[in-house]
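Obj: model holo form, ligand = magnesium ion.
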Amino acid sequence: MKDQLMTPQLHEPSEETRARAHADRAAYDRMYAQSVQDPEGFWSEQGQRLDWITPFSKVKDTNFDLGRVSIKWFEDGTLNVAQNCIDRHLATRGDQTAIIWEPDDPKAEAQHVSYRQLHSHVGKFANVLKKMGVEKGDRVVIYMPMIPQAAYAMLACARIGAIHSVVFAGFSPDALSARVTGCDAKLVITADEAPRGGRNTPLKSNADKAFEKCPEGTQMLVVRRSGGAVEMVEGRDHWLHEMEDGISDDCPAEEMGAEDPLFILYTSGSTGQPKGVVHTTGGYLAYAAMTHQYTFDYHDGDVFWCTADVGWVTGHSYIVYGPLANGATTVMFEGVPTWPDASRFWQVCEKHKVNQFYTAPTAIRALMGKGDHWAEGADLSTLKVLGTVGEPINPEAWEWYDRVIGKGRVPIVDTWWQTETGGHMITSLPGAIATKPGSATLPFFGVQPVVLDPQSGAVIEKTEAEGVLAIADSWPGQMRTIWGDHDRFEQTYFSQYKGYYFSGDGCRRDGDGYYWITGRVDDVINVSGHRMGTAEVESALVAHKAVSEAAVVGYPHEIKGQGIYAYVTLMEGVEATEALRNELEAWVRQEIGPIAKPDCIQWAPGLPKTRSGKIMRRILRKIAENDYGSLGDTSTLAEPQVVEELIENRMNRG
Ligand code: ATP
Ligand code: MG
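Output (holo structure tokens):
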């Protein structure tokens, strides 16, 4: 197979980036070596980045053996996450902005919340929770728009030791009630409506519907956002502003064990039924803080913007916990990238003088499809680091990000990680690691990736390797269990390959030791005995100038076992013709090789995605197989009508 896509040009960090960076290449090598040779020493030192009430004496006690899986970090230390994210900054940066809130409507005023104001808001919020009977260890579901009160709610829970479970505001009443019931929540915090892209989602009324299936006695706390009309149920529902009336903003932070749960969060549901991932207090926070500082090369005074929603782990670790633990200024954005038009992200970067910008390939591809001119009007000169997360980034989209947004001078960090991992696992570091478009590059400190043979499970020792991505030892940000189902936790992550954490992703390691995520293991295509990840073929398609997005899946093929079925979304204004279809087939054949030539290309005006923007190949596989009866769990699907359209087109093709 030709190797063009996988042997691209190295992008070395610029002199400027290197000079500013927390770590250069020598520091990375030295710290990485120490982190894996002496994890206790390394993490004991990193643990000091937090303020402890009782300092820990034990650092690491972890076991990946099936039947006895147990993960504990800093276990005898005590601390409070809200204290670490707020109180300890007051003496030195009380008047510094902690949160910049950019509302959905570009004409509405942005808010700057200082650390002192944050302290007061969170203290009041925490006292409201107490007044409503929420106690340490209780679960609280947060179903909120991207407004500062969502962060206050999370931090208020952390302050009193309640466990939050944030549910993305785009989820339906059913998805909400399943998550409320799943963790037996005492309280749901919501808002009247969630404005997004110029439209209001009726959150409160969704929550009302969800409550029809929630246990009796669950309470609701409602934040006023839009002022839209809602119905309040007497005795069950309360307005935040009424509850806060006259309440003290002084709420002492609860002393929490390092291994007490901080939050539960469901995975995106790309591959199956979402899992309620549990993260705890000390290890998670230390890991979120350290990755935020190093991966984004965050320095005091920088303005950091992660465009994710707080409903995803990315929002937890890189809008709220990591940045605030580091005393950063973090941007919270209520809107979407394409409303009122495709210049919005770049307008916001200019307006708030953003230094680090972190988004997902789905947004980059969508904006690339709209044309370069949307970015050209904005002053992007403050940008110092660009980041991406969520899916493999196609080299073509990477190059676009680099050229059109970074103007060729801003390093890109492609961060591979999962809800389960709490923070970045494989990523470049701006001043230390030269990048290759489409590769997540090298492991973060303390992370020991291994490539396993998918059949035998043996570790492939050779540098150049292709197989299943697993992790050999624990890191502090690792999930501890699945809420209420430790056995499912062990079965999902530790049963297939004994002694390793199994990521579910396939990968390839090149001769320089760089990692390339090739897609989900479940999505691997087997054409005439050749195993192929989805990312490579998709990237070849996206590399064609007419294509903005592509998804490939395997489908039954009489001769080859599996054939390649490609769904292709074209750039705005490009016409879908038979000639183009032939051209794309020839193009992939030339870019990768005859084996990768799609057997069938279907035009796709849109692709089925999770609410977090990831392509759901399991649904595309069903459509390619002509099997429409059992699409599996579709509760996390963003736009169900996309699926109907694809099915209709598929049936018309016969
Ligand atoms: P579920 O586990 O429910 O199927 P999910 O895996 O999409 O959902 P997340 O935890 O949000 O849930 O996503 C993690 C996955 O996203 C990774 O396992 C990987 O497949 C993909 N991913 C994340 N970042 C990257 C990246 N930089 N490069 C390639 N893939 C990535
Ligand atoms: Mg997953």
